[in-house]
């Protein structure tokens, strides 16, 4: 599951779906990975419970994660706490200043959820298009997450 809260991130996710031949479904299939993208205000407990891993994305708002992502965590926290302990996650943040506060906030919650970070957080400054390669590289961390066939 991927969570994208800001317009630029949603536009980037939509462009990835289009380039993968997927239109509007929020689902992209790869050989061994099925990616389901959900905005934070739409993502549900069921999405988290059924996801093998989560890629979390947020704009930096006043030095912290978006209110939408914080609301998402508030809604699912205790409902998924034990069932998803140890599952992997990765994070990207997008903002122009004080991105460390957003990273720290998300990582504190992920630690409380007993999630396993599989990649250093990706901090994007400026246009999302300029960071597309870095985001794609972050996505390549997924294969080691999955059990071998």
The radius of gyration computed from the alpha-carbon positions, rounded to a whole number of angstroms, is 14 Å
Shape: globular
Indicate the structural class.
Answer: alpha/beta
Order of helices and strands: EHEEHEHEHEEH
Give the overall average pLDDT: 78
Q: Would you mind describing this structure in some detail?
A:
The protein has 149 residues and is of the alpha/beta class. It has five helices and seven strands, in the order βαββαβαβαββα. Strands 1, 2, 3, 4, 5, 6 and 7 form a seven-stranded mixed sheet that branches. Strand 5, helix 4 (99-112) and strand 6 form a beta-alpha-beta unit. The longest helix is centred in the middle third of the chain and has 14 residues, at 67-80. The two termini are 21 Å apart. Mean pLDDT is 78; it is low at 16-29.
Features:
single chain, 149 residues, alpha/beta, 5 helices, 7 strands, 37% helix, globular
Give the gist of this structure.
The protein is of the alpha/beta class. The chain has helices spanning 7-19, 45-50, 67-80, 99-112, 132-139, and strands at 2-3, 27-29, 34-38, 54-59, 88-94, 116-117, 122-124.
Topology, element by element:
Layout: E1 2-3, H1 7-19, E2 27-29, E3 34-38, H2 45-50, E4 54-59, H3 67-80, E5 88-94, H4 99-112, E6 116-117, E7 122-124, H5 132-139
Parallel strand pairs: 1-3, 1-4, 4-5, 5-6, 5-7
Antiparallel strand pairs: 2-3
